[in-house]
Each structure stands twice: as structure tokens, then as C-alpha cells.
Amino acid sequence: MSLPAPLPCLAALVFSCAAALPALAADRPAVLPDTMAQRVIACTSCHAKNQGTDAFFPRISGKPAGYLYNQLVNFRDGRRQYPLMTYMVENLPDAYLREIADYFSNQHLLAPPVQPTTVSQAVLERGRMLVTQGDKAIKVPACIACHGERLTGVAPAIPGLAGLPRDYVNAQFGAWKNNTRRARAPDCMADIANRLSLDDVAAISHWIGARALPADPAPAAAAAIKRPLPLACGSSPDHAP
Amino acid sequence: MKKTFFTVFAALLAVALIAVIIAWPREQFVASASNEATAPTPGNIARGAYLARAGNCMACHTARGGPAYAGGRAMGTPFGALYVPNITPDRDTGIGAWNADDFWRAMHNGKSRDGRLLYPAFPYTNYTKVTRADADALYVFLRSLPAVKQANTAHALRFPYNQQAALAGWRLLYFKPGVFEPVRARSLVWNRGAYLVEGLGHCSACHSSRNAAGAVAAGLGGGLIPTLGWYAPSLESDAEAGLGSWEVPHIVQLLKTGVSPQASVFGPMAEVVARSLQHVSEADVTAMATYLKSLPATNTEAREKATGPQVDQFVAQGKKLYETHCVDCHGADGRGLAPAYPPLAGNRAITMDNPVNAVRIVLNGGFAPGTAANPRPYGMPPYSHLMNDAEVAAVVTYVRASWGNDAPPVNAGEVNRYRSTPLD
To answer: What are the Cytochrome c domain coordinates in residue numbering (chain A) (predicted)?
Structure first.
């Protein structure tokens, strides 16, 4: 079977037109994708996939939704201070902030690389001890008492520590000490930060930074940790407010 | 001879004195219509709450994360910082001891309960137009709030701006009490819009230039907002945000939802939409739109398109950056994908003479305000960490000069200045 001569030409014309169309209109989809991924490109531009060890733009994917939501609200209400974040969220409704937090809590990125460390074994041992047992002498509970045995956080609002870059951990302790990072009162982490010396902070951040993220980085279930917490925390209260 | 001199001097003095007496902002008193007007009835409280939204009182009278209406927010001015007072009904630190007449005096005459002259950062130059009935409803609403004990912070103004005498002089020059007078030749809707825009809405506090004494110019001719570093465009000029050529429904859509087919709001206006205008009724926003659309267009000077090899090279560099960073959302044709991604072609926020808003949008990105009609807005990424000053200048220059846009180039120095402008 053969087509009449003009038809192949016409077909070719239609094809070439169709191929040319998107370029003619614009290099973008004709319909806006109705997805969270598209809605939050303002966030992923900084909190991007390949910045797993960037202390400045922390990794937010996979963190518990309640924790992420609390941070968005803290930026909006001035308890955390980073003007660009405050500017981003200050005119967004609570329901949308929750949806954004849920979205990122369900994103799972490749584990960040382990950070090699050159500090002494004694420092690492001090870090391990503080993280896993705490130090009664300075009234600092073990990190794992709240952040979970595997340090992957606890649902719904306690963040994981495993996989956090060293610089990020140091920066947060510094911010708590300087009162530029706060949480809803009682601010347990501010209390703990003020009980730790800078050497202790460095010991903790080096020990955490040198450990690989567990194969299953999901936060533990709420029942995995003992209540009441060693210190009362406004952002993860023992009793529902 | 001496006698003549003395007579002339005395005459001049008398004329000056008469001028001052005539110009002196005399207090006006209008009584409440009845005792019912200031009664704490659910109806009065609801009406007052609505008017407080329309005036966006809470935005200034609440510190970030602090209790509503309890004040404490620092307001930067070129003359020093003002600390916005507590207006909850606490007797000691708020306005719990005030009666409705005291409140009216503050709104209409710009004087505190104790007779102290108020600083016009509290925009009584606008609020003086508010009717006694509306002031009473606001008073009843504020009285219904939980009393918050939070002492006011003293203003930190420099000399001589911290002197009441200086303020008296300012008022002599720039303030005259007077309730809004309806224009008979115009419709009820137009007059309602004018009342809201010129009075409670205090649009001119931003959308007007301020002189060296901080007084706003008449009209809504646009101006750089002091200390915030955003340019509030002229609502009269077709080259800026004049609305003569817009359909009223699109103006209403922009003001109530934050987005429209032609443009989205951002910066301080996003706050105004999120906290105030989205809560104002369709009828009232339509009235405001009707009034704004009717403002006479000011003449705009024709611009000569910048040309030359240097400009061409800069535009070409900007085009490359645009194709890397911007094209996915705004398109190669600059038409965007409204309402999420506003068009850049013909977008006056970009083509206005003053490029500050375009530069700051590229630097900081941002979300359109979340509103009842647009509760999950799309956002634009910040580029401050991805582009240096010259790159931002190039991409803004390209956008300002493409698809029929003909705005002059922007240089790296300007970008640098706006990069360091605080965001909050």
C-alpha cells in the first residue's frame, strides 16, 4: 500500500511543526505541575540533594515532620534567626507549612559521606560517652535518650543527629549558647548547650560526624524513648499540650 | 525711621502669627452617635475586628512571635527607632484606662490620652479621615482583647526629632484633622473605596514619597519605603502600578489572593495581602479597586533605549544566565505561567525606573502570600548564593530589556547595595 504523494509531505510537515511547537512557545511546560516538588523549588534550591555535608544549608529530607514544622514556625516567630528563612515563610499559612514539612520528611536522599576526622581518640571517646551515656557531673543527659538509640530521631518532632555535618552541629550549639536559636519554652537544647563546654561540643560533633548514617535512617517510633524526657522540651512535650 | 521699621516688623510678626493660628492643627471633637456605639456587643466587636484587619493594625502593633496587639515592634525610621505601643486593654501598660473619646482623639487628632503629640509613624494623617462610628467599633474591639501586661519601650529618636516642640512644628506644616468628605459626583462604591484607601488602609504610608521631614506627599505617586528598601510603586503612573488599564476583577484578585494574570505581590505588599486585604470583603476590595482605577494617570516621560556594544554584551550575558536559571518557569518568551509564575514581559514591577524590586526578587526569591484563595502558593528560589552582583545585574538588565521591555540597565553596584539591605 502506498500513500498518495502529497500525504507524506503533509505528515512530515505536521511532525516538524509539532516538534517545533514547544520551542516556539517557550521552554517550559504548558501546564504547571500540581506537585509539592514544583511548589517548593524555592526550598530545594538551597537544601539540595548534593549538599549533604553543607553546614550552611542543612539537609532537611527525612527529618521528622513535626521537627521540620516546628523549625518553620520558629523562623516565622523569630525564635530562630536567619532572615532569608523568615522572609520565605512569614506569609504562609500553618496548614501549608505542615504540608511542606510532611513533604520533606518523606524525601529520602542518599546518605551523606562520613567525615574523616583527625582529632585524638580521647576526644572521640569523650564524644561517644556524652552521646551514649551523658555526663551526670554537668547534668547533661545522653543524646540517645531523646534522639533515639540509633540517633535517627524520634517521631513526631525529635530530629535525627546521625548524618549531620560536624560544622552544622557546632553552629547549632553556638547559636543556642548565643541565644540566636531558640525553641518553644522550656528550651531543653538551650539548657544543654549552656552546660557543655566548647571542647565537649567539639567532641560530640566529631564523634557524630565520623559515623555513617544507619542503613535505615527512618526516625524511631514515639514509643521508642522513655517519657518523661530527661529535660522538659517545649517542642516535644511529654503531655500533649 | 526707627518707628517705620518697628511698624513693619510688628506687622510681619502679626501676619506670621495669624498664619500659624490659621494653620495650627486644631483639635476636632465629634461625639459618639449614642452609648450603643461604644457598647461591647458582639456586633460592635465583630465590626471593629473587621476594621482592624482592614487597617492591618496588628502588623505594626505586634512584635514578631509576641502577643497580638501588645506592641514592642521596633520601627526603623530615618530619624531613629520608634517602638510601637501596647494597645491591649491592660490598665498599666496598654490602653485599658482609655475611654472612647481618648481613642478617637488619638485616631483623629494624633494625640495621646495625656495630650502628648503622637509620632506620625502612627498614620493619623490617614486615620483622621476615619469616622467616629468606625473609631468606636475599633475601640470596642481592642477593649475585647485579652489584656497583656507588657511595658512599652521608649522611642530611640535622635535630637531634635525626640522633642515635642519639633513634632508640634511638623504638625503645623503637615497635619490637619478632618473626617473623609464624600465626593458627591462619584458613586457610593467609589467613595467607599476612597474612604478605605485614604483612611484606615493608609496606602499612602508606603505608596507615596516622603520629604526630608518624613511627611508623605499628597496622592499615591510611589516611593522608596524608608529603611525597608523596597519601592512601593506609584498607583497613579501607568509606567508603575497605575491601575487605569486593569480590569477591576483583576485588581480585586491581586489584592485578595496575592496573584493575578498580570502580576503577583511580593515584599511588604505580600504581608499586606496575607494579613489584611485577603480578610477584607469582596465588596470593600472592589470599592478600593474602583477608586484606585479612577486615579488620574500621571504623565510618564518617554525613555530612550540604552544601546551600544557594552549594553549588548551585558544583555547577552544576562540572556545566558536567564536560560540557565529562569527559563524553566518564566519561559524563553518571558510570558511565565500565571498565576504561579508571573509574566516578565510587560511586567511593570520589572520595568519601573527604580530597579530595586526586580533586583531584590532575584536575590531573595520568595513565595506569593498564602491566602484563602491561594493557600499553597508556588515559590521562587533565591539567587543571592548562586549569582554574584554582576551576574544579577546582567540578568535583571536582560529581563528589563527583552520582549518589548525597554528599561535601562542595572549595574553591579546597585545590586551590591540591595544585597545588604536587611530582609526583616
So the answer is: 122-212
Rounded to a whole number of angstroms, the distance from the CA of B61 to the nearest CA of chain A is 15
Does A197 lie in the same domain as A152? Answer: yes
Indicate the residue among A47, A80, A109 that finishes a domain: A109
CA angle at B19 for the pair B18 and B22, rounded to the nearest 5°: 85
Residues 6+ apart with CB under 8 A from B402: B315, B319, B334, B344, B345
The per-residue pLDDT for range A117-133, each reduced to its tens digit, is 899 999 999 999 999 99
Question: Is residue A136 located within the same domain as residue A235?
Answer: yes
Q: Is B329 marked within a binding site? A: yes
Same domain, yes or no, for A149 and A89? no
Q: What is the total count of domains within chain A?
A: 2
Chain A residues with CB under 8 Å of B63 CB are: 78
Cβ distance of A92 and B367 shorter than 8 Å: yes
Give CA–CA dist B359/B397, Å, rounded: 10
* Among B323, B378, B381, beta carbon nearest to A45: B381
Establish if A241 belongs to a structural domain. yes
State whether residue B379 is helix, strand or coil.
strand
> Are residue A75 and residue A166 in the same domain, yes or no?
no
- Tell me if chain A has a CB within 8 Å of the CB of B375: yes
Q: How far is CA B309 from CA B306, B313, B315, B321, in A?
A: 10, 6, 10, 19
* Torsion B321-B324-B328-B329 (CA) sign: negative
Segment B242-266 shows an average pLDDT of 95
Tell me whether residue A85 is in a domain.
yes
Same domain, A166 and A86: no
Q: Do the domain assignments include residue A38?
A: no
What domain range includes position A72?
Answer: 60-109
Write out chain B residues lying below 8 Å of A87, CB-based. 364, 366, 423-424
In a domain, A211, yes or no: yes
Query: Can you give the CATH number for the domain in which A170 is found?
Result: 1.10.760.10
Shared domain for A233 and A121, answered yes or no, is yes
Task: Kindly report, residue by residue over B264-275, the tens digit of the pLDDT.
Answer: 999 999 999 999
Residue of A nearest to B381 (CA): A42
Query: How distant, in Å, are the alpha carbons of A17, B311, B322 from that of B334?
Result: 22, 20, 10
Q: ipTM of the assembly?
A: 0.92
Q: Which residue of B has its CA nearest to A183?
A: B65
Task: Work out the burial of residue B54: count CB atoms within 10 Å of its CB; fewer than 13 is exposed, 13-18 middle, 19 or more buried.
Answer: buried
3-state secondary structure of A154: strand
CB nearest to A28's CB, from B270, B274, B329: B329
Q: Is A200 exposed, middle or buried (0-12, 13-18, 19+ CB in 10 A)?
A: buried
A67 with A123, same domain: the answer is no
> Of A26, A42, A46, which has the smallest distance from its Cβ to B367's Cβ?
A42
Check whether residue A124 and residue A213 sit in a common domain. Answer: yes
How far apart are the CA of B343 and the nearest CA of chain A, in angstroms? 12
pTM as predicted: 0.90
Residues of chain A contacting B329 with CB distance shorter than 8 Å? 28, 41
